């Protein structure tokens, strides 16, 4: 026994080392690993006591107790191996675009299986029913549930459930019946498979698992409806499949099936499904409620999420109700509240860990799929397997066609033929089917045939459909949705439309999901949030987006300031020269950029991402975005730095630029002798935001948080209190906090004049300058009028007043600098 | 009774041609219309104001106003009605008809434009073809008015930022001394260009009488 174990480990080690070498250094030649094997011999099967001399009772210098660590050790190695494989594919990135990751994993598994088979090894027995259901499955479904795009899901919940429940039933029963019919044909020699077993098998292979399809859909950004239906279907279909599996499994063992059992089965189906949902909601709320109080124990905050979801899963399992349903609803329920409650770091941690566990679990399953394909003994029956493939394909296609015909009249946006094709073709079989079939009890006579058939259908769909779906989807040109809209206008108008629709629906006196959404939001805001969320002020999505943009704003200001600090010494001395040279100092640029980079990278990860638009099953949502933001920010900073130079140590005050239009109007009146870069600079940095802000996907949670950088900035600036006051009023009114500001703004207004003088400097940096100008135009009509009237008529008094006003109120404007100059 | 039935059916047929609703839908909407108007032939603002379900809608005023806006009647008139008849009511409703499978691309484009125009009109209260900052602010304020303790400042700031966004996306090379007066319809289309309207701004008008059924949620 021991010998056997160690042999297995040895092979595992060899394989592991082989792969780590292959993927780690890529250049190593295979012979090397054999050298690695020499490490193994110490793992001699001497039993727990591997003392050099057992008789002497001396203190052993070197001991080894392999059996003690064997299980976790092997698990670790397997996980590592699978993970290395994953790293491997991403070394050469283009592979994963054309060949789905699951295909690659299976291939690697096949290779490893081949190696193991050649040395007559057995794969690890991890795929026992218990291991799978208690440890491998929960992370996968938690991942899907937690990253489910909530809003589109609820907008399409009817269709999703329709396809998940009815579609799965349709497939199971259809395939099961047809296969049973096939079994009656003597030529195939499978007459011994009875109806129950056929149904059981059919329910196993009707679990779709379109990971590969989802990532393709995401890449080509197909329309939201199609995406969410495929996503939701795969999620709930797992639940339905598992329920069916358990039911048929039970039924398959019964000698006789009575009609009563059928009704009981149907009843049980609902009990299991709804019961799971109930537990999920219950635990979700408990979890949310718990996180209300975790603000003092941040370090274990993420733990609650996992423990509660797992608890929901286990309890559901305890009562033999749908545990998948439980964990999914638990994740869906708590996500919203929990993310409001926990700190940003915990939130990030939760997301990472959920993703990590889910993707490891799935990787392992696919990997084992490959291994097992080689190492198990197969019972190959051409007729049965080919007909399985055929029926799976036909029933899936038929099911989608028929079910869409039924659901389309109820959908606001019907599914087109192209969508239906995507839906039908996206029905890949995957991890769940494999695991389910592998955990079949041994008393099923033709278990091996089922395993073989399932593996065949998985390989067939994953490889053939998985690889071909991208070209096909692109070829038939499925309707696409642009998902990267994150501007205030879009948000405002989405809300506007929603409210309009809800209002019109009310007017028509009919209830649709907008009506229910309205009702739920009201209930949510009044009761749930109050109970579950610590800081329970309701937040409109517009405000959330706005705050997010504010935060970005603040960070940019911070960046600008830090740049200024490094440039500070030269500011005064260079001031006069600069106005003529108009060229920025290159050396500042480098260091500034670097410091900005530092600040940015320090700040980035703290920021909460509120909405995850669409997440790949294996990618954390925010990474690429963050990177993109960084890149874009850098280019834009670079641009904005170029013309202006750094000497203006100006803190851009957000409300400032609204004054500029007025300033423009004044330009003609004031000969541009007074040269100040200050405003160029500040407006530039400031006004470049709008273009960038839309890309900023990390919302701040509260305005106070968003303001933090600003306050820090004040100290940096040595700019005294008043500024803090300004900023801390909360929303820095872009234009117009009303009258009080008008004064200062009108004074600012004169500053832009210099820009006129340096058209090249401004113009040659195209986009930021453009933005810069646009910024001015948002001034209100009234304000503008006001300013215009004010200034020309009595310029001097106004300024006199303002001068002191401004210096006092807003030292950062460097009012003193221009003031003397004006004279 | 029978005579009036046929007459109303005839009348409905006209309306159906004009608005694209089916006869059942029109019948339903007519019932609702009469319920709202208290069996009068016309509907006044007062009637709509009294709908309890609408009371919590933050943009109730805009919605109600949209019904009395002549611009939403598919005719080139401006101004507003004091009272609307069933036909006008239907016309406004027809903006929200979902596309069918048979709708062609051009029709979809036209529908989209129509819906955008409807939204635009909700903003542009003074019919001058542009949304000024003041108008925009008003809408944003209303939108946010029900979500708790949001100060007016915030709403203002948001409207300002949004306006700035419009300006920067639409007129990137505006001369420095220009002033962005407001959003024209073209600009409005521009900023919402990427937004998929096909899945929004639709109501599934039911063919059956829903006042007695609450079945809206089961399907989406």
From TrEMBL, chain A:
Feature: compositional bias, Basic and acidic residues: 762-780
Keyword Electron transport in annotation: no
First-listed, main subcellular location of the protein, grouped into a coarse class: membrane
Compartments where found: Cell membrane
Pfam families named in the record: Na_H_Exchanger, NEXCaM_BD
Cation/H+ exchanger transmembrane domain ranges (all copies): 80-473
Signal peptide: 1-27
Keywords in alphabetical order: Antiport, Cell membrane, Ion transport, Membrane, Signal, Sodium, Sodium transport, Transmembrane, Transmembrane helix, Transport
Key word Ribosomal protein present: no
Positions of transmembrane segments: 69-89, 96-119, 131-148, 160-187, 226-248, 268-289, 310-334, 354-375, 382-403, 423-440, 449-473
MF terms (GO), sorted A to Z: potassium:proton antiporter activity; sodium:proton antiporter activity
Membrane topology: Multi-pass membrane protein
Domain of life of the native organism: Eukaryota
Sodium/hydrogen exchanger regulatory region domain location: 567-671
Gene Ontology CC terms, in alphabetical order: plasma membrane
A GO BP entry: regulation of intracellular pH
NCBIfam families, alphabetized: b_cpa1
Family under the similarity heading: Belongs to the monovalent cation:proton antiporter 1 (CPA1) transporter (TC 2.A.36) family.
Name of the protein this chain belongs to: Sodium/hydrogen exchanger
